[in-house]
Amino acid sequence: MGTEERVNATAKNIEGKTKEMMGDVTGDPQQKSEGKMKQTEAQAQHAKEDIKDKAKEHIDRA
C-alpha cells in the first residue's frame, strides 16, 4: 500500500470538500466546481492505490 499516496489523496479530498463548501457559502460556482473536481481526483487516486494493492496481493500469493 502506498501510504504516502493515500495520505495525499485524503488531503486532496479534504481540500476539495473545503473548496466546495466555501463555494456554497460565497455563492461562487467556479470554486464549488473546483472542489468537486479535487474530490473526484482524490477518488481516482484511492482507486489506483486499491488496484495496486490487489495486484501486489496476487503477486505475493504466486
Describe the fold and architecture.
It is a single chain. This protein has helices at 3-26, 29-61. The chain is mostly helical. The chain is rod-shaped, with a radius of gyration of 15 Å. It starts with a helix and ends with a helix. The chain is 92% helix and 0% strand. The chain is built from two helices and no strands. The mean pLDDT is 94.
Shape: rod-shaped
Low-confidence stretches: none
- For the report, how would you describe the main beta sheet? none
DSSP E strands, number: 0
Arithmetic mean of pLDDT: 94
Cα distance, first to last residue?
18 Å
Task: Provide the descriptors you would attach to this structure in a database record.
2 helices; 62 residues; mainly alpha; 92% helix; single chain
